[in-house]
Design goal:
- This protein has 165 residues and is α+β, with helices and mostly antiparallel strands.
- The chain has 4 helices and 6 strands; from the N terminus they run βαββαβαββα.
- Strands 1-3-2-4-5-6 form a 6-stranded mixed beta sheet.
Length: 165
C-alpha cells in the first residue's frame, strides 16, 4: 500500500512577516492550487476547484472540492483547506489562492465559503485565479461586505423576547 504524506508543506519564503506576498510565493501558491485541483472528486458537477491556504508562519494547506450524491454534503476546496489548517491548530491566515478550470473568468468562492473564511477574519487576502496563472487579489471583507462574524455574538442583545415555540 502506498504511504500517504499527511504533513503540511512549509513555504520557504521571504513573506513570513510581510502583508504582501512576493511574486515567487504567489506563483507557487497558484501552482499548488492548480495541482490539488487534479484530485477533486466532482462526478456530478464536473467542476474542479483547488485551494492553497497560507498561514502567517509560512505553512501551506491545500484542499479540493469533494462532492457527494447527497449534494448538500459536498465540501468546497476552500473549506477543505481551512479545515485542515484548523485541525492543526491554526486560527488566522495570510492568504488563500483559489483555482478552477474556468478559462475566461476568475473563480470566486461560493457564499458559504465566503462566510467560512470570514469566521477567521475580515482582512486576509483571497486570490482568484485562472488556469493561465493570472489572478485578482481581493480580501475577505470585499468578498463579503457588511458581514456577520464571531465578534457579533458578543454584542448587546435584547433578552426579553418571549419564545412562543
Amino acid at each position: 500500500m502506498e504511504e500517504v504524506n499527511l504533513r503540511r508543506e512549509v513555504m520557504d519564503s521571504k513573506d513570513h512577516g510581510s502583508m504582501q506576498l512576493c511574486q515567487e510565493t504567489l506563483t507557487k501558491l497558484i501552482q499548488q492550487s492548480q495541482e490539488v485541483k487534479k484530485h477533486a472528486y466532482c462526478p456530478y458537477s464536473k467542476f474542479r476547484v483547488g485551494a492553497a491556504l497560507l498561514t502567517h508562519d509560512g505553512c501551506v494547506y491545500t484542499g479540493c472540492n469533494v462532492e457527494n450524491a447527497c449534494y448538500n454534503l459536498g465540501v468546497c476546496a476552500e473549506r477543505n483547506a481551512i479545515s485542515k489548517a484548523v485541525s492543526e491548530g491554526y486560527r488566522s491566515f495570510k492568504a488563500i489562492v483559489i483555482s478552477s478550470d474556468l478559462k475566461d473568468q476568475f473563480i470566486t468562492p461560493c457564499g458559504g465559503c465566503r462566510q467560512f473564511m470570514r469566521e477567521f477574519g475580515k482582512n486576509w487576502d483571497v486570490y482568484l485565479s485562472k488556469p493561465d496563472g493570472s489572478h485578482v487579489k481581493m480580501n475577505v471583507s470585499e468578498l463579503l461586505p457588511i458581514s456577520f462574524g464571531p465578534e457579533d455574538l458578543s454584542m448587546k442583545k435584547v433578552f426579553n423576547i418571549p419564545n412562543e415555540y
